[in-house]
Amino acid sequence: MDNDRNKKPIGKDIKQEQLDEYRIKNTGNPLTTNQGRKISNDRQTLKAGERGPSLQEDWHYFEKMTHFTQEEQPERVVHARGYSAHGEFECYQSMRHVTKACLFQEPGKKTPLTIRFSTVQGPRGSYDTARDLRCQGVKFYTEEGNYDLTTIEKEIMI
């Protein structure tokens, strides 16, 4: 038997050496935004005063946070299971005093909708009975565009 073939040499990682030729080294290059503009610091935000709130003018911070929140983490992708129903929403009384949305303006107006109920499960291999969230989504198809309403039932620990 050739058991030495599966042993890793001490102090040497062959796979890392293979990847080294494809790695990009940014040493000596300036820190830049997504548009290529040079910046000196991306760890602190613009604040109103020494301990004040962050300012809306700090466009680089918002760009960085947008990029961070939209980054997909494959292990956190959930697989929803559920069902949906199609129907109509009928407004019984005018809600003009509360909203400008066209589906609530005049009594008797019917708006097509889709409602979705689902449970979100854990990663592959988790039990089907161990579900954590219950979700409901309603989509109204109006003349002004689609109006989406999503709710998530989640207990809060204090």
What topology does this entry show?
Elements: H1 14-20, H2 59-69, E1 79-90, E2 110-121, E3 133-142, E4 145-153
Antiparallel strand pairs: 1-2, 2-3, 3-4
**Spatial separation of the terminal alpha carbons:** 59 Å
> What number of domains?
2
Share in β-strands: 25-35%
Output the strand order for the largest sheet: 1-2-3-4
- Rounded radius of gyration (Å): 26 Å
CATH architecture label of the largest domain: Beta Barrel
Describe this structure in words.
The protein is an alpha+beta fold and 158 residues long. It has two domains: 15-71, Irregular (Cytochrome C Oxidase, Chain J), CATH 4.10.91.20; 75-153, catalase hpii fold, CATH 2.40.470. It has two helices and four strands; from the N terminus they run ααββββ. The protein has a four-stranded antiparallel β-sheet, with no helix packed on it. A hairpin with a 2-residue loop joins β3 and β4 (145-153).
Index terms:
158 residues, alpha+beta, Cytochrome C Oxidase, Chain J, catalase hpii fold, 2 domains, four-stranded antiparallel β-sheet, 4 strands
Give a brief rundown of this model.
With 158 residues, this protein is of the alpha+beta class. It is 11% helix and 27% strand.
